[in-house]
Every structure is written in structure tokens, then in C-alpha cells.
Amino acid sequence: MMKSKRMKSILLKAGFALGLSLAISAHAYAATYTTVSGDSLYKISQIYYTTVDNLMNRNNLTNYSLDIGQTLNVPSSTHTVQRGDTLFFIAQRYKIPFNTIRRANNIYTDELHIGQIVNVPQPAGLTAGAPLSDLSAVSGTSGAALTSAADTLISALASAVSSESSSEPSFEPSSEPSFEVAPLSDSAAATDTPPAAKINTAESEPAAGEAVETAYSASDLDLLSRLIMAEAQAEPYDAKVAVGAVVMNRVKAGSFPDSVSDVIYQNINGYYQFTPVVNGWIDKPANADCIKAAKAALSGVDPTNESLFYYDNTTTNPWILAKPVSTKIGNMVYAY
């Protein structure tokens, strides 16, 4: 009997050790990221669910300055592109926001190549997003699948032991394993971004009269309100907020300018990105509903799930229609 108990204990400990080893290898896996214009250590730390200090230590950096094209070691799992893969489907498979995987790889087209390595950032301590149906092919898969496999193995071993004897003590680690990647802390967030660049990320619009952090300027609010007025005056309130959210998502994305004004007035190869800038409607004053929607978007409300584009349902442009759709509100379509 004692021998049987000892064997069960050893088996469970071995299973836990194996699971811990696999999980650590998944989360501590070192991928690389190449910096682009507008990058900062703070922005990169947000993308990869880590801290500025962690990035500095990994890369032996002594200051916060970065060069365009600089290669950084980052804590991330990776995915090898297979036939039929798209960036959108990869994001769905690993259960991470589509905009996160785009920013982590600086890929803003639909073109991928078989064998291409794609970074897949994931928060520490969470089960990775690979579906359990994929675990039969754990060998050679990404660190995400290995973590799920380890969790499954630990659970199965624990169930097997407890089912034989409810009175037998089970092996429980004294604490959760500590992985190298840590969730972004408030102190780290303050390390590499000036106060004026911070956006209040409240989940909903504050109640009337409630004091809130005003991280945006009055000119930002005025300009965004006028864009919303020009683009979605006749649309439902949520569609108005969504127009503002697209602008804010571009501000946060590395491939667009990093201010409300620069995003709205961006000109690429002679073409403005927003029609009201071209036809002059951007200069028309906004009504109270559009101002309210702009305040919500500036505070972090995003009905679009991080979309970067929008258009109305009468559009026939094949380029914009080819983009993955996030949601539809009223006559407006929001896409990645």
C-alpha cells in the first residue's frame, strides 16, 4: 500500500515538473522584434505583455532610445505559417486581438509566406490559446500548444490519483510557478511615455458630473467630434463612438501617426485617409451627440474590437472590402 502511494506521488510530481518545464519553455521563448518608426520601449512592452525594465534587461539596454530597424529580443511564442494561414486566423487560433498580432509583427497586409515565423504574444500565467484538438501534434508546435499540453497532463494525473483514494494527500505546489513575462505594472507604464500621451482606458463613458482623467486636449476633442459629425451624423450613437475608436486605434498602432490630429490629416502618396478632410466637412461644427461620442472614444471605449478601418455599406472599393470585418453598426462597417 505504501509503495503504491509513493508511486502515485512520484508520478504526480513528475507530471507537475514536466508541465512546469513545458510552460516555462513556452513563456520564456525568445522571439525577435524589429523596431519601426514611432516605436518606443513602452509601446513594445504593451504589445508583448511585459515591462520596459524586462525589455532593457533582455537586450542589455542602458537608455530608452531605439533606432529604426533595431532587433530586440522579446518574450513571445511563435507560429510557423502553414498553407492557408492568414494573420486573422492565426489571431483567432491563439485567442489574441487581431491588432496585437499585427503590431507584434508589423504586418499590415494580407500576404504571408509558408514557413514564415510570426510572433504570438500572450499574457503570462494564462493558458495559451491553441485549441485542445491540436494537442495530438504537440511535437514541433508553438510554445502556446506546449503550455496547454502541460496543463492537460497535470490535470489528468491529479484526477487519476484522487479517484483511487479520496483520503490520500495530493501534491500541491506551494505557489503558482513564476514565469519570466510579467503583466504590465503601473510603474512600468509610466517609465517610457510622457503624461500627455496617456489615454484614459475606462470601459464605459463616465457618469455625468463624475471627475475623470483628461489625458487628451481640447483640440483633440474638437477635431475628433467634427470627424464623427462628418462621417456618422445620421448613424446610431455606437456607430459614432466606433468612428472615434478607429482613430484612437490608429493612434496606438505603430504603422500610423501617434496623435489624433496627425491621424486625421494623414496624407499618403497624395491621398488623405478621411473623406471629410478632402471635401471640407471636417470644418463643420459637431453636435452634442458627436461630442459625447468623441469623449467616449478618447476615454478608451471601443465597440470595434480594435478595428483600423471603417466604411459605409454602399462602398464598392475592392481593397477595403477585402479586409476582415470586425463588426457592423447601422450602415457602417468596421474592419481590420
From TrEMBL:
MF (Gene Ontology): hydrolase activity
Signal peptide bounds: 1-30
Residues annotated as domain LysM: 31-74, 77-120
Gene3D superfamilies xrefs: 6.20.240.60, Cell wall hydrolase SleB, domain 1 (1.10.10.2520), LysM domain (3.10.350.10)
InterPro entries: Cell_wall_hydrolase_SleB (IPR011105), LysM (IPR018392), LysM_dom_sf (IPR036779), SleB_dom1 (IPR042047)
UniProt keyword annotations, A-Z: Signal
UniProt entry tagged with the keyword Heme: no
Region named Disordered: 165-195
PROSITE patterns: LYSM
Protein name: LysM peptidoglycan-binding domain-containing protein
Organism listed in the record: Sinanaerobacter chloroacetimidivorans
UniProt lineage: Bacteria, Bacillati, Bacillota, Clostridia, Peptostreptococcales
